[in-house]
Design goal:
Blueprint: H1 2-18, H2 20-35, H3 39-48, H4 54-67, H5 71-80, H6 87-99, H7 103-116, H8 130-143, H9 147-157, H10 170-184, H11 186-189
């Protein structure tokens, strides 16, 4: 009985001391740092949120790490909250899958996001959209030598593009188109 009372008291103290405004302020601070391109500060702020708001904390930390080109840690952050099936986290997890050459997983994670929301837009950066995820899929299919699916995904982004899948230069034709598309989406899919 005493243990239950202490547990309840501890829960109440924790809930009261964490205060909603503090969490909201930290979340706004993290989002502002991200928006301003201060990804190291954003990463630290988002990691401070993981105890009180794991989905926001790990998702923001993951995207901050992506922008810092730290794909291994970003992958860990997104994987930590995979059970939540958060679209922003899965979009980032798709990108880290591609960056870490886990192409099949990247395709599947992008499918998870796109099946929930075909018009996906990242909460932290409205410049990251469903088209970026389709491009990640096209890049992954290309790496898997699945040129038919590569072409199908490219056509979702550029419906006027066509290529002869039976042509001897199909790999090069697709590679050139993927480079062109990657230049358009460079903020999202840059590996370097």
């Amino acid at each position: 009985m005493k243990m239950i009372a202490w547990s309840i008291l501890l829960c109440l103290m924790t809930a009261c001391s964490s205060g909603g405004a503090g969490k909201e302020d930290l979340s706004k601070e993290a989002q502002q740092a991200f928006t301003e391109g201060n990804y190291e500060d954003a990463l630290a702020s988002f990691l401070s949120l993981v105890e009180s708001d794991p989905v926001t904390g790990y998702t923001g930390a993951g995207w901050s790490a992506v922008r810092l080109h730290d794909y291994a840690n970003a992958n860990v952050y997104f994987q930590t909250i995979a059970a939540a099936k958060d679209a922003d986290a899965y979009a980032g997890w798709s990108l880290t899958g591609w960056a870490l050459s886990d192409f099949n997983s990247a395709i599947q994670r992008a499918d998870t996001v796109l099946s929930k929301d075909a018009d996906f837009v990242l909460t932290l950066d409205d410049g990251v959209t469903a088209a970026d995820l389709v491009l990640v899929q096209a890049l992954c299919y290309y790496e898997n030598n699945n040129f038919s699916m590569t072409l199908q995904k490219i056509k979702l982004i550029d419906s006027g593009f066509n290529a002869d899948l039976n042509g001897s230069d199909i790999a090069q034709v697709l590679a050139v188109k993927l480079e062109q598309l990657s230049a358009l989406f460079s903020k999202t899919v840059a590996k370097g």
